[in-house]
Amino acid sequence: MKYEYKKEYQINYTELDQNLELGVFSAIILQQNMGTEYFGTLKSDNIILKNENNAIWVVSKTKVHFNKYPTWRDIVYGRTYTTKLKPIRVEMETTFTNEKGENLFVTKQESCAIDLNTRKIRKIDTVNYPKDMEIEENTLVEPFLKLNESFSENDFVYEQKIFSTDIDFSRHTNNASYVKFILNTLSCQFLDKNKVTDFEIHYINESGEGQKLKIYKKEKDNIIEFLIKEKETNKEIVRAFLKYE
Question: What's the pTM value of the predicted model, to 2 decimals?
Fold first, then answer.
């Protein structure tokens, strides 16, 4: 069966950056909300999984490509659907178009189900998820990157403590908080002069309230790679990639 979720949005002032454009952070928020509501239509969101399967969905990777940034009061049309279904992974896409049907930006997300007791990955067939899911073709055909850049203390930018406002229903740091930590390494001057065309983030390990993170950045040509590590243990938490023009 074909499962999809569609929603119309009007871009609000509070979602915009200093150039009155949606920007990377708010685009990720929009995609995250679409994905959550999509899982809700499948009777597979985190409230249901927690109550019925003792599990939650966690995002492992997100990728976004921009053709054009929406601006204030623009109407955008989101559509979410599944593009891959593996034993332990679900991959879905969300496309955002304007009133003319033009593709503004597209996101790709990979998610896994985690057991609440063991914090280990569960097989998809052990949680609520449609067995008759019809898989659609990718719009964003580029695969997820292999992010393995080496970083040194010379690449260190700043330290960030995790506060209660960073914690979500899964009792770990919200994915969007990591995106904000990364984007905070970019200046307003940089964003005035450059347009981000691609952003990809890999969530490697969890972090929680009170922990301190170290954010690293390395730039080459028109590409910037990022690493977030937990300060005390030196454990990798997040890696990310950004391309601009």
Answer: 0.96
